[in-house]
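Tutorial handout. Part one gives the primary structure; part two gives the three-dimensional structure as tokens.
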Amino acid sequence: MEPLASPLEQALHVARALVMADLTARDVAQADVVSMVEDAVAQRRWWVEQWPEGAAYVTGLIAQDVQDALLERYGRWPLCPVCADGEPHALEVEPELGADPHWVCTKAAVMVAPVGGLT
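Part two.
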């Protein structure tokens, strides 16, 4: 019988799965993007080991880390599906540091989906 993953590892696995679901939903889960997710998870593993109480925040942080990495390489992600007029813009993760993170359009002040719930 395999040992159960620690609560910290479980939080990291859940965060990875939720961010991957959003990337897949928006058709950007190519191999190099998956590598960005793995890098973000590895970096946040150290962070959450130093501050175990932050495990509830790791999903939003990993989503933001991947969003930042994508911006550097490809551009804004995920694009807002709410605002049809004007310049395309990315959704933001709110709360920036908190539990239950959501993708939010700050221009329209609308909650679009929980992290992991993009369609």
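Part three, for discussion. The helical segments are 7-25, 31-50, 58-73. The longest helix spans residues 31-50.
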